Amino acid sequence: MRIVSGTFKGRRISAPKKLPVRPTTDMAKEALFNILNNLYYFNEVSIIDLFAGTGSISYEFASRGTKQIIAVDQNFNCIKFINKTSEDFKMPIQTIKSDAFKFLEKTKLKANIIFADPPYANTEDQFSRIPILVFQNDLLEDNGLLIIEHSKHTDLSNLEHFSYSKHYGGCVFSFFE
Q1: Could you tell me the residue range of the domain that residue 44 belongs to?
Q2: Using CB atoms within 10 A as the burial measure, which of 35, 44, 92, 148 is most buried?
Q3: Segment 43-100, tens digit of pLDDT
Q4: Residue 82 within a domain
């Protein structure tokens, strides 16, 4: 995996093979950040990265100057990898080892952008819990955005607060406002 833009553009990060992850492709990341670049100044936003896995999305935000990044994952080895990588690059990423759903149920933290990349094999009910918890618990700042990454076989357009989606190969980003 590589960082596609910002201070660390082009830097390759090799995640251990044993991590139970499916990192977002470089093409999809680049497209997502092109959208976000037109909406936000990265140095002025706060981010929560749910189901963070290797931390790929968190690194992209940090590379672009975001100072408040929280990466949430339930896997100890993923958290350990994100901590080591962010320390090596001196990135301001705070990690929380937690099930993402339990985190959303209990947290009082708010963010401008909440990015969720749950397992593609999740059921539509599991996917729908994410926006329900985010909006029910008022976890987005004013003009905030929830982005859920999922496969092209999952349709989230019927969920409350759905705004639009963008397709990149087999990957889809659904945006909720």
Answers
A1: 26-176
A2: 148
A3: 999 999 999 999 999 999 999 999 999 999 999 999 999 999 999 999 999 999 999 9
A4: yes
Three-state DSSP class for residue 91: coil
CA triplet 153, 134, 121: central angle to 5 degrees? 25
Q: What share of the chain is helix, strand, coil (3-state, %, to 5)?
A: 30, 30, 40
Could you give the CA distance from residue 177 to residue 175 in angstroms, rounded to a whole number?
7
Q: What is the pTM of this model?
A: 0.96
**How many alpha carbons fall within 13 Å on the CB side of residue 75?**
16
- What is the pairing mode between strands 68-73 and 171-176? unpaired
What's the Cα-to-Cα distance from 33 to each of 4, 36, 48, 101, rounded to whole Å? 9, 5, 15, 25
Tens-digit pLDDT profile for residues 143-156: 999 999 999 999 99
Instruction: Count the domains in the chain.
Output: 1
Q: Can you give the CATH number for the domain in which 144 is found?
A: 3.40.50.150
Q: Which helix (H) or strand (E) holds 71?
A: strand 68-73
